[in-house]
Amino acid sequence: MTSNVGRRRFLLTGSLVGAGVLATACTSNSEETGNTNQQSVSTGGDNDKPGTKVTIGFSAPAADHGWIAAIAKNAEAQAKQYSDVDFKPVEPTNDINQQISAVESLIAQKVGALVILPNDGQQLNQVARKAMDAGIPVVNLDRVFPDKLSYRTWVGGDNYGMGVAAGHYIGKKLKDKGVAKPVILEIQGIATLPLTQDRSKGFADALKTYGFEVTAQQDAQFTVESGNEVAGNLLQAHKKIDALWNHDDDQGVGVLAAIKQANRNEFFMVGGAGSANAMREIKNGGVLEATVTYSPSMASSAIKLARLIAQGKGMADLVEKQVPQSITLASETITKDNVDQYLPLGFES
């Protein structure tokens, strides 16, 4: 991800499939009535049936990155599934002040709910709080607002879990190979973002269980160009490498290019997010052996949740009458063994 980007990925057609688990949680095709004990509760009915007309405002960074492009496409496609949703996206931008102004325009229009993926949660916290104070529920997507009063529900990926998944893959493989003091490199996205810090912590914590630690770490801003430059510098600085974790498959295009240019293949690499090109690299064999997911299907889920909240509904498969305050998607590890299963869901970098 980048300050211009948000974090990680799947194609439009796959996004709705990728959101399947959560979508199932949001809808129910039949009504069940508990009659075995007093704790059994009748669940909600079909939440996908047309209900009260609602307007959902949407704001996200500019789609100059594969994952962010998938986020915008998924949100729009999901909104189109509902005849009772009027979808109002504002112009995507990587300028903080412009995004604040765009959100303020949606507040002025008195939309029924807002879905916001902020360029920076800290800097957009105040305008999100303004929406909540005006009675407009905010579904905070991916980059979290620090003030819980600034959003009704947060939905996003498991950044710490991404790091843990990558750390376990690398740690186990090196341990099985009997490597005593491995050289492990880490290429982050944007170092100042909490999501990046969570990923790095999860990675370090997982490696620690194998007695390993990160040898060198550098951020690459979630761009292909920076990925290429940073990887080139790290390759020059380390004549022997055992493993590399790159946080983001979009910037990974540049990382892989640098590796190929340097003609280095003594190590293996793990990616992050689940892009289609990363999966193709995994399928073909080579340095990139795995990637850990961070699905942009979360945008589809955010629209579903915003609609339910605006209509005063809960998630039909849950006992509770309201949508939960926080929903975290799981991070999965894609390898050559299961890549064919995930490839149709990959977003293009």
UniProtKB/TrEMBL annotation:
Q: Which residues form the Periplasmic binding protein domain?
A: 56-313
Where in the cell does this protein reside? Answer: Cell envelope
Region called Disordered, residue ranges: 28-50
Region forming the signal peptide: 1-30
Q: Which InterPro entries match?
A: Peripla_BP_I, SBP_2_dom
A single Gene Ontology CC annotation of this entry is: cell envelope
Can you provide one Gene Ontology molecular function annotated for this UniProt record?
carbohydrate binding
- What superkingdom does the record give? Bacteria
Keywords for this entry? Signal
Q: Where is the composition biased (Polar residues)?
A: 28-45
Family membership: Belongs to the bacterial solute-binding protein 2 family.
PANTHER family according to UniProt: D-ALLOSE-BINDING PERIPLASMIC PROTEIN-RELATED
Q: What is this protein called?
A: Ribose transport system substrate-binding protein
